[in-house]
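In the previous chapter we treated chains in isolation. Here, by contrast, the input contains two separate entities that must be folded as one system, with a combined length of 506 residues.
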Amino acid sequence: MKYVVFINLGPGARGWQALPEAKQAEVQAAWGELNQTPGLTPGAGLQPPETATTLRMEHGDTLITDGPYVETKEALDGYFILEAADLDAAIEVAKKVPALQTGGAVEIRPVMDWGGGS
Amino acid sequence: MLATLIGLLGDFELAEEAAQQAFAVAAERWPADGVPANPRAWLITTARRRALDRLRRERTFQAKAAELQRELSAAANGRDPHEAPTMFEDDDPDFRDERLELIFTCCHPALAPEAQVALTLRTLGGLTTPEIAAAFLVAEPTMAQRLVRAKRKIRDAAIPFRVPGEAQLPDRLAAVLAVVYLIFNAGYSAPPERGSLTGEAIRLGAALAELIPDEAEVFGLLALMMLHDSRRAARLRDGDLVPLAEQDRSLWDHAAIARGRTALDRALALHGHGRYVLQAAIASLHLERDRDWPQIAALYTRLAVIDRSPVVALNRAVAVGEADGPAAGLALLDRIELPGYRYLHSARAELLRRLGRPAEAREEYRRAAALSDDAAERRLFERRLEKI
């Protein structure tokens, strides 16, 4: 069963640069370990939401705006892909995401099955 | 039977459809051919074959179909798996009672709480969708949608059909008990015309006790529900609420009380000290003519450590008021923040009355009555107000 796990760092937890080096090393170590999980395909850590650009169609024209397409505080900060036996197995892996310790949130979304078997 | 099918197929809707088809075939064939030696096994086998046929027709589930095919072949002991079951099927596969897996699946935290309640009542309680809708004062299409969405979430997110492992069990069991208790409370405050959710909850609690006989809180919850329900006939007189102390005890269901106390004994023998065991012990003590208020107060003090809700604090204050005098009780009530909660005002009113402060007592009863949305309850507060 394939899932994408989305990570939101939570308010005030962005700003990798602002973190003391020791903290940065801790988080990197935690991710290093998590990325060893069987079935886990590392995704990416994203630059902060201010760096985003959003496209929409308005009156037949492409509208380009600054920022993410959701509220800044709800914007995505990272993701990875997870192959797990079932939701409970996915939850056990997602519990280890470091962002949860600092007020972040993790979303587990099953990937659409377009047919022809999984 | 439905539980077993859901376990085999991992899909609520598929299982329900297959079960219906199996019953339809049985209704056609059994009157002519006679009822099979093992009707349940016959129905399950037939349902599985129907489900298999449907899965084959849907290419998306090729992998699942292959797995079921293997299982069916194994069960048929080398016979042609496409052969229709004969009347006297003599292989009797041991279909485990999978109600426990079903309860934990229905109460999975990934489902919305109201979906957990609806799904539990639908699949384990056997209530129809219209019955559940009526019980919770929700429109029938809304309830139907709620159930459909929950079943699809189970399938699409792959919520497993499994009893949780040891590490997850305490939290997951707590969730199941919370759902059962919610169902009980929904029934307790509803008029009898809205069906017997309390009966459903007690039945679910009894099934849990049978399936998980070594968990104290399961017996605690069962005891709590049975003891509360035992007094149902005495709670109302001519549409008026009758306080516990004034109830006609001959209207109490003493057999239910005995059953409740047996469940409580079992919980205590299992060294239970959780929220349901404590509440059941309190409920049992309340049934005595001469209530042991110091014991009740002590139990509430322990409960308040686990359950920090202001309602528990309120009940504790009332018990302390009985055990140690109204001044002690009022001191505790003064510390409780429960704006708009009528029972805080009625509790204050009673203690103020005993302390010889009638004007303040009357004011508190007035506020309690104003905050009540139940006519019987309002009349109770007003009667007490008049007696001061």
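The mean pLDDT of chain B is 86. The CA atoms of residues 264 and 281 of chain B lie 7 Å apart. Compare these points with the single-chain example from earlier in the chapter.
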